Fold this sequence. Notes:
Elements: H1 6-39, H2 42-50, H3 52-78, H4 82-109, H5 111-118, H6 125-153, H7 158-182, H8 187-205, H9 225-263, H10 266-302, H11 306-333, H12 336-339, H13 350-360, H14 364-379, H15 383-409, H16 413-439, E1 443-444, E2 449-450, E3 457-462, H17 468-477, H18 482-497, E4 505-511, E5 515-522, H19 528-535, E6 542-547, E7 550-558
Antiparallel strand pairs: 1-2, 3-4, 4-5, 5-7, 6-7
Amino acid sequence: MEKDIIANIKFKELLLPTLLIAMALNISAVFDSFFVSSLIGESALAAIQVFEPVVLFITILEWLFGLGGQILSLNCKGEFDEYGSNKYFTIAIESTVIICIIMVIVCSLFADSLINILHPPAGVLPYVQQYAPFLFLCFPISTGLGVLSQYIRVDGQPNFASYLIIIANVINIILDYVFLAHFHMGIGGAALATLIGYSVALIISLKYHFDPKRTYKYLRLKISIKEWFGSAYKICKTGFPNASTGLFEVFLVYIINRILTVYLGEIGLVSYTACMDSLLIVSILIVGLIETFSSIIPVYYSQHDYKNVKYLFKKAVMIALIVAVAFTAILWIVPDLFLMLYKLNLSPNVETFRFTLRIFSLCFIPSVFATVFIFYYEAIERSAIATALSAIAMFVGPLSAIFGLMPFMGINSVFISFAVANVMTIIVAILYVKVVERREPQYGGFLIFRKDLIPLTQNFNLQNRNDKNEVTNHLMSLDSNEEECKNVESILNFIFDNNDEDVAVEVLVIDYKDNITVNIKYTGNEGLFEEIKKEVCDDDNLKFTNVLGFNNIKYEIKKS
Length: 560
């Protein structure tokens, strides 16, 4: 039986933790919606939708410092720069702590002002005031947990990252039921349940800071003030494309809430809540799949391993499309299956809810392609186009569609606008690729590969130690130095000799004409590198890093 390639092993290993982290505070809001709608009523459900812009704003910070810092850290690891990797980790965590302190101060001093800015309808205001205090306290806690979980996930501890989010949400679900059904604490009880769940998970996450096996280290007092601010800016710049998706969505949801309140009142907010929760559930799966892919991409793309980049791209898109098609079909054929979760199938306005849910679900399939372009271009550090695509998908596109189609469709233009915006995003991404191919002729295709390196690159997936001959034969065909070819063979032998039969080994060989780069990736025993240098090959051209939980050795070979 052929062994799985490392890219696929890591994709499967990181998928569940990424899905769970993608849930974070948002899935708590969905559970709150289920319990609140069932046990309190539609007015309380509308109150949760009133807070949606603020909840989305909090997720921006998780993307900004968690994903932005993670991409830069992984790029540094892929380039064997341990100092740079630890620097971005340190600054991302410190920035998050500072932001959380500011958040506590603002929410404590200006709670009433924040509520007034959200303009809740008069009948919903009492529920908003009950929900706000505990929800505001939860924001800094969920932000800290979200950012730290991003790093734990890619530092060889994906299961621990999963447990943290599972613990937070299981506690939230149990306490939602206890506080609302048994203690009758009202909508404030739902927010308190979320606060307790995430507080417990954050306390447990502190175990990571004392774990000797973690590869991210704090660089205490080693970073100058100038370097700190410069690196913090770069983290924000890198994370902004995905964070901007949330930022644009904050403004969009705020505007749509105002439009729906004016035209439909409470019914509009309830209908929009159901639609957004359906999108949230689908997005957790789609974004989780694509973020898993984009978490691995920086390592492979920085090393010009285009075969694995292409493999991961196809895998993520294919699974995401299956999810999107399945959910679209369910909401068109049996929308009541979803509405019954909120008891909206029993509402006198059920026909309105069914219709809006169906036309809204048309955005799921195009959102797969729009999302993958945004995440991918951010992962390969093309931040400008990633940000532009975010703006189109989550702000410019929907608003253009709403006001452009309103004369023909009325208020229904709100619910079809997301599908139109995603199609616009795909069109702009296609045009961008055409522009890149003209301006940078060395690059080509939607994944923007360096065309000149593709024929000079060879991948090997080694099933056993005998397969190493394929690597050495290829190296010899490139006029490699014979002694260094033997060093590569000895390194591969040493890896197989000091691991069990299940070890996965990949070799990437790139002929850069003046020298040849050999990247050896393997799972298993990470303590081999020092032994390799001592017993096999003590060469200045030999480098090592542990990234995403696998071992990566880089060896530069001179030509004969």
